[in-house]
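WARN  no MSA supplied for this record, continuing single-sequence
INFO  ligand: nicotinamide-adenine-dinucleotide
INFO  echoing inputs
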Amino acid sequence: MEVLANYIGGTWTKSKEENTVAVINPASQEVIGTVPLGSHTSADVASAVAAAAGAFAAWREVPVMKRVQPLYKLKQLLEANAEEIARTITLECGKTLAESRGEIQRAIENVEVACGMPVLMQSEFSENIAPGIDEFMIRQPLGVCACIAPFNFPGMIPFWFLPYAIACGNTFIIKPSEKVPLTMLKVFELIDQLDLPEGVINLVHGGKETVDALLEHPDVKAISFVGSTQIARYIYAKGAANGKRVQAQGGAKNPVVVLPDADLDISVKIITDSVFGCAGQRCLAASNIITVGDQGAIKDALYESAKSRTTGFGLDESVEMGPVITPDSRSRIEHLIDKGIQEGGRVLLDGRKPAISGFEQGNFIRPTILEGLPLDGEVIRTEIFGPVMSLIELGTVDEALTFINSGRYGNMACLFTSSGANARKFRSQAMAGNIGINIGVAAPMAQFPFSGWNESFFGDLHGQGRHAVEFFTQTKVVVERWPKEWSRKF
Ligand code: NAD
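INFO  complex generated
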């Protein structure tokens, strides 16, 4: 199978790396691609940075109204090719076709918001800060910026950064996850059709060595990372040590609280979608479901809803949940379920080792529900990143908030209730950057920042919307004096 090419300086380019790793369909274990992986990818990074740096001087001078024109075309191309991209996402990442289509829609929305850059980049002007003196601030691009993406949203996450970065006048490099590199390949076939100067957007494949080369290259000015907390922390530290601007989004362990006055049917449907959607491989997947008071009815309903979820190959439109990404990932999740049992938990619904007809080799786990886990145990505190729900019963909203706020992450917290006062208290006091009230996946729309807190985020400015504009620009403040005495008489 041909090794996937990089896209550097407007040309499809063979990697200088000879070692490769297979891209595998997680539902069937079929090899669907081959991607370069190894230390020689640093030479690919050097070429990509040289191309991006070479393009920067001219691109930053292109008026912003003109810089967004290729984004209008990209939106059209993404829409016209959405189905093909969605099928590629499902093939390499495992999620259902409906989930992949939704992902592309979210990518397109970021392109749409970035098209507003002529207004988003506008700045501040103060006339007469002193007699004859004006002061104003302008936003200027940084230079070469790079994005390092995770496996779970191969079509969407690069778009939290890419359209904003280039509309602000930067040039850009994307390093997709080596587990799912085919989606960006499809996207770059579209980028190749834009009237963009060579080197403005580049694609480099690889793993740790590629990332390290980006972090170490002096011409890379900013890094946008999304992935696990352990690697996010590493990227943040190493990027900062090398003088770069860094935004690093990490892992999560998201709680959802259900009060006795919540609408049972609506809550159950939304919560099971949140826990088991994308097979739990979402940084906004609900994981700990906290019921307040005695809620036997909701427990039974969650059990029935989880049990009836169809698991299988995502390209089959009737399937509601696909596999997890790798056999290692499946083993890790099964190990955490075992660990939960060792910790004293009970398995209410056991999805381990299912038989999926026709896909016996796939990395499948059916929906699983644990209950009775100790609140200070490992499983209830660890990101499982798989289709596992942990049920927790607590007595009051305050107890739920104390439990939530004692966690290390802070990506999302949700509440289901019909009480405005409790909702108001929760949204104010829950220590998480994305809050859902009667919502199960509180994913911010493109015009809002994706606001993780605590160990879910390292940095200051988040991805998307105005935060992205601030991240991808540096401010320059100008103080100008034009004394009246100098004015010529005409
Ligand atoms: P990961 O951290 O393993 O990999 C992410 C990227 O880092 C990949 O491109 C990979 O090649 C690179 N990488 C891996 N190991 C590296 C190393 N040692 N040094 C340098 N680079 C390295 O994450 P993943 O498994 O691809 O994605 C799942 C994780 O991402 C989950 O923890 C999930 O919560 C998180 N995530 C977070 C958000 C968010 O917005 N906070 C969104 C999506 C996913």
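The longest strand covers residues 133-141.
INFO  checksum written, moving to next record
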